[in-house]
Structure formats: C-alpha cells, structure tokens
Amino acid sequence: MTDAVPTEQKWTEQDGDERDGAARGRAQDWTDPACPVARTVDLVGDRWSLLIVRDAMDGAASFTDFRNRLGVARNILSDRLRKLTAHGILAMSTPPGAKRHTYRLTESGQELFTVVVALRQWGERHAFAPGEDHSVLVDDGGRDVPRFRVLDRSGRPVTAATSHVRKVGE
To answer: How far is Cα 89 from Cα 53, in angstroms, rounded to an integer?
Structure first.
C-alpha cells in the first residue's frame, strides 16, 4: 500500500447524476487514486457512513430512522445520506402519497455486507473484554454466522503474509 497524502474530497451534483463508477471517479479528488482500499475508505470509511450502511442493512429507511438509531447530528446525517446516494450506495425515493424520502441499499450498497461482517467479527474478537456482552450476527436459523475468511482458489486461507498488491504499472 502507499503513503498517500489525503486530499480534499470534491462532491458535486454531477456525482449524483452519474451511474458509471469511472465517471464518478473523474469528478472527485481521491486520497490514493489507484488504490481500491483508499477509494472505498474515501466513500464509506468514516464512522457515520458505515453505521448508516449497517443500519440500512438492519431495516432503517428514513432520515428519522437513521437519526433515532444513531443519534447523529442532522447536518452530518444529511451530508452522509447525500454522499452515499450520490455514489450509488443508497437509492432515495419518495413513496406515493408520502412527504419524506426513504433510502434503500443499492446492489453495490448490499455488497458492503461482507465488509460490515468482517468489521463486526474483528470487533467481536478485539474490541470487547473477555465475557463482555455484545450483539451477535446470526443467520435465519438463529445460528452464529461463521468467521469470515478470505480463501484462495484452492480453498486455503489468504493472509497479508501470503498475498501482495500488484501496483498499477507493475
């Protein structure tokens, strides 16, 4: 990975109109333009954005739902919902006869499920004291979700020690 210096994000109205990820990328300054991790962190790496995505996965759909669950300031919530919508992670709609918008995860937003699960499972192992109570992710049958692992094409675990990043131009 690189030691890129963060640059200021430029979020434009054009971003919300674009559906092509590459087109969205051109309209923004990225922390590290060639690194998928850096771009992802630029989009969803702050506390509130990830918690909004988490809560959308858990059924939150309205501004009020997110506000009540998170306790986040209105201006911050508005900003994060706008950015997540502009970058195609959430879709906003207004149901017929309703006065307020609702939000739902798009397909790309739903693909963040593995990221949220990986963060959750890391937190279960490293962010709580032994025996400390915490929520648990379970499947539809009520069973704990197995630990997330990255596997190679042969089914063997992949770690930071057994992989490397192929940089642009290598």
So the answer is: 8
